[in-house]
Design brief:
7 helices, homodimer, 4-stranded parallel β-sheet, Dna Topoisomerase Vi A Subunit, Chain: A, domain 2, two-stranded antiparallel ribbon, alpha/beta
Chain lengths: 197, 197
Protein backbone atom coordinates (compact mmCIF):
# COMPACT_ATOMS: atom_id res chain seq x y z
CA UNK A 1 0.00 0.00 0.00
CA UNK A 2 1.25 3.46 -0.94
CA UNK A 3 0.48 5.15 2.38
CA UNK A 4 1.14 4.14 5.97
CA UNK A 5 -1.82 6.26 7.13
CA UNK A 6 -4.16 4.31 4.84
CA UNK A 7 -2.71 0.98 5.96
CA UNK A 8 -3.17 1.87 9.64
CA UNK A 9 -6.77 3.01 9.16
CA UNK A 10 -7.66 -0.19 7.30
CA UNK A 11 -6.22 -2.30 10.13
CA UNK A 12 -8.13 -0.26 12.74
CA UNK A 13 -11.47 -0.42 10.87
CA UNK A 14 -10.96 -4.15 10.39
CA UNK A 15 -11.20 -4.56 14.19
CA UNK A 16 -14.87 -3.50 14.13
CA UNK A 17 -17.47 -6.29 14.09
CA UNK A 18 -18.74 -7.20 10.62
CA UNK A 19 -16.01 -5.11 8.91
CA UNK A 20 -13.71 -7.46 6.96
CA UNK A 21 -10.50 -6.52 5.15
CA UNK A 22 -12.39 -5.63 1.94
CA UNK A 23 -14.98 -3.47 3.74
CA UNK A 24 -12.20 -1.73 5.67
CA UNK A 25 -10.46 -0.86 2.37
CA UNK A 26 -13.72 0.34 0.87
CA UNK A 27 -14.56 2.52 3.87
CA UNK A 28 -11.06 4.03 3.83
CA UNK A 29 -11.27 4.89 0.12
CA UNK A 30 -14.73 6.36 0.71
CA UNK A 31 -13.50 8.59 3.54
CA UNK A 32 -10.72 9.84 1.25
CA UNK A 33 -13.43 11.17 -1.08
CA UNK A 34 -15.16 13.05 1.77
CA UNK A 35 -14.31 16.59 2.80
CA UNK A 36 -11.84 16.71 5.70
CA UNK A 37 -14.50 18.46 7.80
CA UNK A 38 -16.94 15.61 7.26
CA UNK A 39 -14.38 13.02 8.34
CA UNK A 40 -13.43 15.16 11.34
CA UNK A 41 -17.12 15.41 12.30
CA UNK A 42 -17.51 11.62 12.22
CA UNK A 43 -14.29 11.21 14.22
CA UNK A 44 -15.51 13.77 16.80
CA UNK A 45 -18.87 12.00 17.13
CA UNK A 46 -17.06 8.75 17.91
CA UNK A 47 -15.03 10.36 20.69
CA UNK A 48 -18.13 12.29 21.88
CA UNK A 49 -20.12 9.14 22.34
CA UNK A 50 -17.39 7.69 24.54
CA UNK A 51 -16.99 10.79 26.69
CA UNK A 52 -20.70 11.72 27.00
CA UNK A 53 -22.42 8.34 27.28
CA UNK A 54 -22.43 6.54 30.64
CA UNK A 55 -24.31 3.59 32.10
CA UNK A 56 -27.39 4.33 34.23
CA UNK A 57 -26.57 3.51 37.87
CA UNK A 58 -30.03 1.94 38.35
CA UNK A 59 -30.75 -0.13 35.20
CA UNK A 60 -27.40 -0.04 33.28
CA UNK A 61 -29.03 1.54 30.21
CA UNK A 62 -26.81 3.82 28.11
CA UNK A 63 -27.42 7.44 29.06
CA UNK A 64 -26.06 10.98 29.11
CA UNK A 65 -28.07 11.87 32.25
CA UNK A 66 -28.23 10.15 35.64
CA UNK A 67 -30.51 8.27 36.11
CA UNK A 68 -31.41 7.46 32.50
CA UNK A 69 -34.48 8.79 30.67
CA UNK A 70 -36.35 5.51 31.24
CA UNK A 71 -35.68 5.36 34.99
CA UNK A 72 -36.51 9.06 35.45
CA UNK A 73 -39.70 9.00 33.33
CA UNK A 74 -42.55 9.31 35.85
CA UNK A 75 -45.12 8.24 33.25
CA UNK A 76 -43.61 4.77 33.03
CA UNK A 77 -44.89 1.86 35.09
CA UNK A 78 -42.42 1.60 37.98
CA UNK A 79 -43.90 -1.72 39.20
CA UNK A 80 -42.61 -3.67 36.18
CA UNK A 81 -38.96 -4.49 35.36
CA UNK A 82 -37.87 -6.27 32.19
CA UNK A 83 -34.57 -8.12 32.58
CA UNK A 84 -32.52 -8.24 29.38
CA UNK A 85 -29.04 -9.54 28.55
CA UNK A 86 -27.57 -6.71 26.47
CA UNK A 87 -28.10 -2.99 25.81
CA UNK A 88 -29.02 -3.79 22.20
CA UNK A 89 -32.01 -5.82 23.43
CA UNK A 90 -33.25 -2.83 25.44
CA UNK A 91 -32.98 -0.59 22.38
CA UNK A 92 -34.89 -3.17 20.31
CA UNK A 93 -37.76 -3.20 22.84
CA UNK A 94 -37.79 0.61 23.06
CA UNK A 95 -38.13 0.79 19.26
CA UNK A 96 -41.39 -1.16 19.49
CA UNK A 97 -42.73 1.57 21.82
CA UNK A 98 -44.99 -1.06 23.41
CA UNK A 99 -43.31 -1.61 26.76
CA UNK A 100 -43.94 1.11 29.35
CA UNK A 101 -42.18 -0.37 32.39
CA UNK A 102 -38.52 -0.22 33.49
CA UNK A 103 -35.51 -2.32 32.46
CA UNK A 104 -32.53 -4.03 34.00
CA UNK A 105 -29.53 -4.82 31.78
CA UNK A 106 -27.53 -7.85 32.96
CA UNK A 107 -24.60 -7.20 30.59
CA UNK A 108 -24.25 -10.85 29.61
CA UNK A 109 -25.56 -14.37 29.97
CA UNK A 110 -24.41 -17.18 32.23
CA UNK A 111 -22.02 -19.24 30.12
CA UNK A 112 -19.66 -21.61 31.99
CA UNK A 113 -17.83 -22.43 28.74
CA UNK A 114 -16.89 -18.75 28.37
CA UNK A 115 -16.13 -18.46 32.08
CA UNK A 116 -19.15 -16.19 32.68
CA UNK A 117 -20.89 -16.89 35.99
CA UNK A 118 -23.80 -15.14 37.76
CA UNK A 119 -21.32 -12.94 39.68
CA UNK A 120 -20.20 -11.40 36.34
CA UNK A 121 -23.73 -10.12 35.62
CA UNK A 122 -25.62 -7.18 37.19
CA UNK A 123 -27.76 -9.52 39.28
CA UNK A 124 -27.02 -8.21 42.80
CA UNK A 125 -28.07 -4.75 41.57
CA UNK A 126 -31.40 -6.23 40.39
CA UNK A 127 -32.00 -7.85 43.78
CA UNK A 128 -31.17 -4.52 45.43
CA UNK A 129 -33.89 -2.85 43.32
CA UNK A 130 -36.39 -5.55 44.32
CA UNK A 131 -35.68 -4.95 48.02
CA UNK A 132 -37.02 -1.37 47.59
CA UNK A 133 -40.48 -3.05 47.36
CA UNK A 134 -41.92 -1.02 44.47
CA UNK A 135 -41.56 -3.77 41.85
CA UNK A 136 -44.48 -6.18 41.36
CA UNK A 137 -43.52 -7.97 38.13
CA UNK A 138 -40.19 -9.16 36.73
CA UNK A 139 -40.33 -9.97 33.01
CA UNK A 140 -37.52 -12.32 31.96
CA UNK A 141 -36.49 -11.36 28.41
CA UNK A 142 -33.21 -13.26 28.21
CA UNK A 143 -32.16 -14.40 24.76
CA UNK A 144 -33.71 -17.63 23.43
CA UNK A 145 -30.44 -19.60 23.67
CA UNK A 146 -28.99 -22.18 26.05
CA UNK A 147 -27.12 -19.41 27.87
CA UNK A 148 -30.22 -17.20 27.99
CA UNK A 149 -32.27 -20.07 29.40
CA UNK A 150 -29.60 -20.81 32.04
CA UNK A 151 -29.62 -17.14 33.03
CA UNK A 152 -33.43 -17.05 33.25
CA UNK A 153 -33.46 -20.21 35.39
CA UNK A 154 -30.81 -18.82 37.76
CA UNK A 155 -32.72 -15.54 38.06
CA UNK A 156 -36.02 -17.26 38.79
CA UNK A 157 -34.34 -19.00 41.75
CA UNK A 158 -32.96 -15.70 43.03
CA UNK A 159 -36.44 -14.16 42.78
CA UNK A 160 -38.34 -16.75 44.83
CA UNK A 161 -37.83 -14.89 48.17
CA UNK A 162 -39.54 -11.80 46.71
CA UNK A 163 -43.28 -11.23 46.42
CA UNK A 164 -43.19 -10.55 42.70
CA UNK A 165 -44.78 -12.21 39.72
CA UNK A 166 -42.07 -13.62 37.40
CA UNK A 167 -42.99 -13.97 33.73
CA UNK A 168 -41.01 -14.78 30.58
CA UNK A 169 -41.57 -13.37 27.08
CA UNK A 170 -43.04 -15.91 24.66
CA UNK A 171 -40.97 -18.32 22.58
CA UNK A 172 -42.61 -19.22 19.30
CA UNK A 173 -42.62 -18.72 15.56
CA UNK A 174 -41.34 -15.33 14.44
CA UNK A 175 -44.02 -13.40 12.55
CA UNK A 176 -43.60 -13.78 8.80
CA UNK A 177 -41.45 -16.90 9.09
CA UNK A 178 -41.96 -20.20 7.29
CA UNK A 179 -43.37 -22.92 9.55
CA UNK A 180 -41.83 -25.62 7.35
CA UNK A 181 -38.37 -24.17 7.90
CA UNK A 182 -38.66 -23.68 11.67
CA UNK A 183 -36.41 -25.83 13.88
CA UNK A 184 -37.85 -28.51 16.17
CA UNK A 185 -37.15 -26.65 19.40
CA UNK A 186 -38.93 -23.52 18.19
CA UNK A 187 -41.89 -25.60 17.03
CA UNK A 188 -42.12 -27.45 20.36
CA UNK A 189 -41.94 -24.12 22.25
CA UNK A 190 -44.65 -22.69 19.98
CA UNK A 191 -46.86 -25.70 20.72
CA UNK A 192 -46.24 -25.54 24.48
CA UNK A 193 -47.03 -21.83 24.47
CA UNK A 194 -50.33 -22.16 22.57
CA UNK A 195 -53.17 -19.91 23.70
CA UNK A 196 -56.96 -19.85 23.42
CA UNK A 197 -57.87 -18.55 19.98
CA UNK B 1 -32.84 6.44 21.73
CA UNK B 2 -31.63 7.45 25.18
CA UNK B 3 -28.67 9.55 24.02
CA UNK B 4 -28.34 12.26 21.41
CA UNK B 5 -24.62 11.44 21.00
CA UNK B 6 -25.47 7.83 20.14
CA UNK B 7 -28.21 8.89 17.73
CA UNK B 8 -25.87 11.29 15.92
CA UNK B 9 -23.09 8.72 15.58
CA UNK B 10 -25.50 6.13 14.17
CA UNK B 11 -26.72 8.62 11.55
CA UNK B 12 -23.12 9.52 10.62
CA UNK B 13 -21.95 5.90 10.33
CA UNK B 14 -25.05 5.12 8.27
CA UNK B 15 -23.68 7.48 5.58
CA UNK B 16 -20.75 5.13 4.90
CA UNK B 17 -21.14 2.70 1.97
CA UNK B 18 -22.36 -0.76 2.98
CA UNK B 19 -23.25 0.39 6.52
CA UNK B 20 -27.02 0.15 6.99
CA UNK B 21 -29.02 1.33 10.00
CA UNK B 22 -28.52 -1.99 11.81
CA UNK B 23 -24.77 -2.09 11.19
CA UNK B 24 -24.47 1.53 12.31
CA UNK B 25 -26.22 0.66 15.60
CA UNK B 26 -24.01 -2.39 16.06
CA UNK B 27 -20.81 -0.44 15.41
CA UNK B 28 -21.89 2.28 17.84
CA UNK B 29 -22.63 -0.22 20.61
CA UNK B 30 -19.29 -1.92 19.89
CA UNK B 31 -17.38 1.36 20.20
CA UNK B 32 -19.09 1.97 23.54
CA UNK B 33 -17.46 -1.23 24.81
CA UNK B 34 -13.98 -0.06 23.69
CA UNK B 35 -11.63 2.00 25.85
CA UNK B 36 -11.90 5.71 25.13
CA UNK B 37 -8.25 5.68 24.01
CA UNK B 38 -8.97 3.01 21.41
CA UNK B 39 -11.89 4.98 19.98
CA UNK B 40 -9.79 8.15 20.00
CA UNK B 41 -7.01 6.30 18.12
CA UNK B 42 -9.44 5.17 15.41
CA UNK B 43 -10.88 8.70 15.19
CA UNK B 44 -7.36 10.17 14.89
CA UNK B 45 -6.43 7.69 12.14
CA UNK B 46 -9.48 8.80 10.14
CA UNK B 47 -8.48 12.46 10.35
CA UNK B 48 -4.80 11.55 9.74
CA UNK B 49 -5.63 9.80 6.50
CA UNK B 50 -7.40 12.90 5.24
CA UNK B 51 -4.65 15.32 6.22
CA UNK B 52 -1.66 13.18 5.20
CA UNK B 53 -2.86 11.45 2.04
CA UNK B 54 -2.78 13.38 -1.26
CA UNK B 55 -3.12 12.46 -4.93
CA UNK B 56 0.08 11.99 -6.91
CA UNK B 57 0.44 14.88 -9.38
CA UNK B 58 1.63 12.50 -12.10
CA UNK B 59 -0.58 9.38 -11.91
CA UNK B 60 -3.31 10.37 -9.35
CA UNK B 61 -2.43 7.48 -7.05
CA UNK B 62 -3.01 8.04 -3.31
CA UNK B 63 0.25 9.04 -1.63
CA UNK B 64 1.90 10.76 1.31
CA UNK B 65 4.95 11.74 -0.78
CA UNK B 66 5.17 13.60 -4.09
CA UNK B 67 5.44 11.98 -6.59
CA UNK B 68 4.02 8.67 -5.31
CA UNK B 69 6.09 5.59 -4.47
CA UNK B 70 5.18 3.97 -7.81
CA UNK B 71 6.13 6.99 -9.94
CA UNK B 72 9.37 7.54 -7.98
CA UNK B 73 10.44 3.86 -8.00
CA UNK B 74 13.37 3.72 -10.44
CA UNK B 75 13.19 -0.10 -10.59
CA UNK B 76 9.78 0.05 -12.26
CA UNK B 77 9.35 -0.02 -16.03
CA UNK B 78 8.80 3.62 -16.99
CA UNK B 79 7.89 2.73 -20.58
CA UNK B 80 4.57 1.11 -19.60
CA UNK B 81 1.46 2.88 -18.25
CA UNK B 82 -1.67 1.06 -17.12
CA UNK B 83 -4.80 3.21 -17.33
CA UNK B 84 -7.38 2.38 -14.65
CA UNK B 85 -10.72 3.94 -13.68
CA UNK B 86 -10.47 4.12 -9.88
CA UNK B 87 -7.84 4.08 -7.12
CA UNK B 88 -9.26 0.79 -5.85
CA UNK B 89 -8.36 -0.86 -9.18
CA UNK B 90 -4.75 0.31 -8.82
CA UNK B 91 -4.57 -1.13 -5.31
CA UNK B 92 -6.00 -4.43 -6.59
CA UNK B 93 -3.29 -4.67 -9.27
CA UNK B 94 -0.56 -3.72 -6.78
CA UNK B 95 -1.71 -6.53 -4.49
CA UNK B 96 -0.99 -9.06 -7.26
CA UNK B 97 2.62 -7.77 -7.33
CA UNK B 98 2.81 -8.80 -10.99
CA UNK B 99 2.72 -5.44 -12.75
CA UNK B 100 6.00 -3.51 -12.67
CA UNK B 101 5.10 -0.50 -14.85
CA UNK B 102 3.42 2.81 -13.98
CA UNK B 103 -0.27 3.71 -13.62
CA UNK B 104 -2.66 6.46 -14.56
CA UNK B 105 -5.89 6.83 -12.58
CA UNK B 106 -8.74 8.37 -14.60
CA UNK B 107 -11.02 8.90 -11.55
CA UNK B 108 -14.11 7.69 -13.36
CA UNK B 109 -15.62 6.27 -16.52
CA UNK B 110 -17.37 8.01 -19.38
CA UNK B 111 -21.08 7.77 -18.58
CA UNK B 112 -23.41 10.17 -20.43
CA UNK B 113 -26.37 9.01 -18.30
CA UNK B 114 -24.55 10.20 -15.16
CA UNK B 115 -23.35 13.35 -16.92
CA UNK B 116 -19.71 12.19 -16.88
CA UNK B 117 -17.84 13.11 -20.08
CA UNK B 118 -14.17 12.70 -21.08
CA UNK B 119 -13.40 16.20 -19.77
CA UNK B 120 -14.32 15.02 -16.24
CA UNK B 121 -11.57 12.36 -16.30
CA UNK B 122 -7.78 12.77 -15.95
CA UNK B 123 -7.27 12.23 -19.71
CA UNK B 124 -5.45 15.46 -20.63
CA UNK B 125 -2.91 14.63 -17.92
CA UNK B 126 -2.37 11.20 -19.51
CA UNK B 127 -1.79 12.77 -22.93
CA UNK B 128 0.64 15.21 -21.30
CA UNK B 129 2.62 12.23 -19.94
CA UNK B 130 2.66 10.62 -23.38
CA UNK B 131 4.10 13.80 -24.94
CA UNK B 132 7.21 13.34 -22.74
CA UNK B 133 8.09 10.46 -25.12
CA UNK B 134 9.21 7.88 -22.52
CA UNK B 135 6.06 5.72 -22.69
CA UNK B 136 6.00 2.85 -25.21
CA UNK B 137 2.90 0.89 -24.11
CA UNK B 138 -0.48 1.98 -22.77
CA UNK B 139 -2.41 -0.86 -21.14
CA UNK B 140 -6.15 -0.16 -21.01
CA UNK B 141 -7.49 -1.71 -17.80
CA UNK B 142 -10.88 0.01 -17.71
CA UNK B 143 -13.65 -1.90 -15.97
CA UNK B 144 -15.47 -4.58 -18.00
CA UNK B 145 -18.72 -2.60 -18.22
CA UNK B 146 -20.47 -0.51 -20.87
CA UNK B 147 -18.96 2.64 -19.34
CA UNK B 148 -15.51 1.08 -19.10
CA UNK B 149 -15.71 0.02 -22.75
CA UNK B 150 -16.80 3.52 -23.81
CA UNK B 151 -13.86 4.98 -21.88
CA UNK B 152 -11.39 2.53 -23.46
CA UNK B 153 -12.73 3.31 -26.93
CA UNK B 154 -12.46 7.06 -26.38
CA UNK B 155 -8.91 6.68 -25.04
CA UNK B 156 -7.80 4.52 -27.99
CA UNK B 157 -8.87 7.35 -30.31
CA UNK B 158 -6.92 9.91 -28.27
CA UNK B 159 -3.85 7.65 -28.42
CA UNK B 160 -3.69 7.21 -32.22
CA UNK B 161 -1.41 10.28 -32.74
CA UNK B 162 1.21 8.76 -30.40
CA UNK B 163 3.77 6.11 -31.31
CA UNK B 164 2.70 3.72 -28.54
CA UNK B 165 1.37 0.21 -28.49
CA UNK B 166 -2.15 0.18 -27.01
CA UNK B 167 -3.28 -3.06 -25.36
CA UNK B 168 -6.27 -4.05 -23.25
CA UNK B 169 -6.34 -6.55 -20.38
CA UNK B 170 -8.16 -9.78 -21.23
CA UNK B 171 -11.89 -10.28 -20.84
CA UNK B 172 -12.84 -13.89 -20.14
CA UNK B 173 -13.94 -16.36 -17.52
CA UNK B 174 -12.82 -15.52 -13.98
CA UNK B 175 -10.60 -18.29 -12.56
CA UNK B 176 -12.60 -20.67 -10.38
CA UNK B 177 -15.95 -19.64 -11.87
CA UNK B 178 -18.63 -21.96 -13.24
CA UNK B 179 -18.77 -21.94 -17.05
CA UNK B 180 -22.43 -22.98 -16.99
CA UNK B 181 -23.31 -19.90 -14.95
CA UNK B 182 -21.30 -17.39 -17.00
CA UNK B 183 -23.30 -14.78 -18.91
CA UNK B 184 -23.39 -14.75 -22.72
CA UNK B 185 -21.26 -11.65 -23.14
CA UNK B 186 -18.48 -13.03 -20.95
CA UNK B 187 -18.60 -16.34 -22.85
CA UNK B 188 -18.42 -14.57 -26.22
CA UNK B 189 -15.48 -12.42 -25.01
CA UNK B 190 -13.74 -15.56 -23.71
CA UNK B 191 -14.19 -17.23 -27.11
CA UNK B 192 -12.99 -14.15 -29.04
CA UNK B 193 -9.96 -13.92 -26.78
CA UNK B 194 -8.93 -17.57 -27.16
CA UNK B 195 -5.19 -18.28 -27.41
CA UNK B 196 -2.96 -21.07 -28.72
CA UNK B 197 -2.85 -23.82 -26.09
Amino acid sequence: MASEAIEKLIVALNRLPGIGAKSARRLTLEMLTWDTDEVRELADLMVDVKTRVRRCSICFNLTEIEPCSVCSDTRRDRSSVMVIDFIGDLLAFERTGLYRGLYHVLDGRISPLDGIGPEDLNISQLLHRLRQGEIREVILANGPTVEGDATAQYLSQCLTPFEVSVTQIARGLPVGSDLALADQVTLSRALEGRREY
